[in-house]
Amino acid sequence: MADVEKLRKVKQCIDSLAEGLNPFTGQPLPAEDIVNDVRVSRSLFLASAFLQEQMQGTPAKKNGKKQAFRLSLEERERVEFSTQPIPASGLARRMNEVVSTQDCKKISYRQITDWLVEVGMLKLVENVAGRHRRRPTDSGEKLGISVDNRVGQYGPYQVVLYSEDAQRFIVDNVDAIVAFTVSKEKGTQR
Asked: CA 183, CA 157: separation in Å to the nearest integer?
């Protein structure tokens, strides 16, 4: 909340300067002031528009392709974190629910867990059937990633769970997760 409020105040200050007004008093600035130069004024309006996009999320591209997943600062504040540990799929769903634009891709639990493997919070472990499963590393366990044994309709299984601290870590690093996913996709499309 504090980050969004700071951005709002900065945007208001930039808007005032772009309009040739003193941001603190609202009085017009002298005509010879540098902010009254057309190039400076345009630059300030562009900076203001950029801040607006950052607070609301990036607008959709016009070419019909969906953009990569993105959470604005306001949307990040609306993500509901669970006090009880939840799977990555549950956190991905909560993140997708707060995205305000329909023109961006959804984030998947696989994108989250692949990135966690990349940064050393999860590791791939081969189970008795020879299949690779993701399990927390020591660093991951310290962050709040754990494994729980459960029983489903097909018998016992293990699920990786993320504490509230781990959930916040993931949301705080969503830009890095998306960048990793995009670079990985570009690498496989060559």
From this structure: 32
Question: Structure pTM?
Answer: 0.64
Rounded (5°) CA angle 29-23-41: 60
The partner residues of 146 in beta bridges, in order of sequence, read 161
Give the range among 51-55, 88-92, 178-182 with minimum mean pLDDT: 51-55
CA distance 105 to 96: 9
Rounded to 5 degrees, what are φ and ψ at 62?
-90, -10
Cα–Cα distance for residue pair 130/45, rounded to 1 Å? 58
Q: What letter does residue 101 receive in the DSSP assignment?
A: -
Three-class SS of 110-162: HHHHHHHHHCCCEEEEECCCCCEEEEECHHHHHHCEEEEEEEECCEEEEEEEE
